[in-house]
Amino acid sequence: SRGWKVRGHTLAWHSQQPEWMRNMSGTALRNAMLNHVTQVATYYRGKIDSWDVVNEAFDDGNSGARRDSNLQRTGNDWIEAAFRAARAADPGAKLCYNDYNTDNWTWAKTQAVYRMVQDFKQRGVPIDCVGFQSHFNAQSAYNSNYRTTLSSFAALGVDVQITELDIEGSGTQQADTYRRVVQDCLAVPRCNGITVWGIRDSDSWRSYGTPLLFDNNGNKKQAYTATLDA
């Protein structure tokens, strides 16, 4: 009724599966996954702006390999199959791939996802957007090549969105990083979404890192002002 757009998250994911799914494998699991994608996307057809069709399918190491999961073990084409099923079920929705630790252009994981998207575009596999979770902390820090990452993916012909943004830290340093991230997105014409992963620091999955725009009491932080200014 308000004209708001809804992003569906997520149709196929290795984590937090129901017990019946964790006990399946092979062809039975593949068919169940495709049935789930088809039924859910059909149910919401015409109501969802974009779907995170597949979430976090690549390994977090330095190899650039696929994550070893029950879905991956059904065959290397499972991501493609999920995207094709989603397109058939809801032709009007934008179809996205979403992952974390894909922010730094030099990382093997980033390059592996890039190659997958490039391959999909070349072969006509339906993909419209790539989501970058961008959970920045000391182990996965913001890097000045972040804009290169966003623009390189966009050049493949997909939209890019920052889907789960949080930046551990405080004060001016945290505010400056939020500002840079927003500026990087604004500099890439096909970067058309920024979602902060929570409201108050106390609500965050990383509350110890005070990574959000509002403090525990709901007051605006320096990071809020920097984001708005940018």
Describe this structure in words.
This protein has 230 residues and is of the alpha/beta class. The chain contains seven helices and seven strands; from the N terminus they run E-H-H-E-H-E-H-E-E-H-E-H-E-H. Strands 1, 2, 3, 4, 5, 6 and 7 form a seven-stranded parallel β-sheet that branches. Helix 2 (26-43) packs parallel to helix 3 (78-89) and helix 6 packs parallel to helix 7. The radius of gyration is 18 Å and the shape is globular. The mean pLDDT is 97.
Give the N-terminus to C-terminus distance in angstroms: 30 Å
Q: Give start-end ranges of low-pLDDT stretches.
A: none
Rg from C-alpha positions?
18 Å
The H/E string reads EHHEHEHEEHEHEH
**Helix/strand/pairing class, anyone?**
alpha/beta
Strand content: 15-25%
Question: What's the mean pLDDT score?
Answer: 97
What layout of secondary structure does this protein have?
Blueprint (H helix, E strand, L loop, with lengths): L6 E7 L5 H4 L3 H18 L6 E6 L22 H12 L4 E6 L8 H16 L5 E4 L2 E2 L9 H9 L4 E9 L3 H17 L3 E6 L25 H8 L1
Parallel strand pairs: 1-2, 2-3, 3-4, 4-6, 5-6, 6-7
Helix pairs in contact: 2-3, 6-7
Summarize the structure.
This protein has 230 residues and is of the alpha/beta class.
